[in-house]
Design a protein that fits this description.
By secondary structure, this protein is an alpha+beta fold. It has one domain: Glutaredoxin (3-Layer(aba) Sandwich). It contains 4 helices and 4 strands; from the N terminus they run H-E-H-E-H-E-E-H. The chain has a 4-stranded mixed sheet with strand order 2-1-3-4. 21% of the residues are buried.
Length: 98
């Protein structure tokens, strides 16, 4: 089974959504992320990390608010932001790194 660090260490872009099941804005991001994945296809990988189930990973990355989106390539953090985003804003952001 692939570890989180292995998942973010690849050559391609990996967008990580740190979320919680009880978080309203996190629930609002779910369809946005699905639409972004449908638009960008294999050019990006999207991982969802439940901060309640994976507290150690959330702590390592200093996640204090949800949702927090982090973008990685080769294990390096390219972008980080807390709060929900629209599909248009997220696509505009991601296109800068594709």
């Amino acid at each position: 089974m692939e570890t989180f660090n292995e998942a973010i260490a690849g050559e391609g872009l990996v967008l990580v959504d740190f979320f919680a099941t009880w978080c309203g804005p996190c629930k609002a991001m779910h369809p946005v992320l699905e639409q972004v994945k449908a638009t960008l296809g294999d050019s990006i990988r999207i991982l969802k990390v439940d901060v309640d189930k994976h507290q150690d990973t959330a702590a390592i990355f200093g996640i204090q608010a949800v949702p927090t989106l982090m973008l990685f390539r080769k294990g390096e953090t390219l972008y980080r932001q807390s709060g929900a985003m629209s599909k248009a804003d997220l696509l505009a952001l991601l296109n800068r790194f594709l």
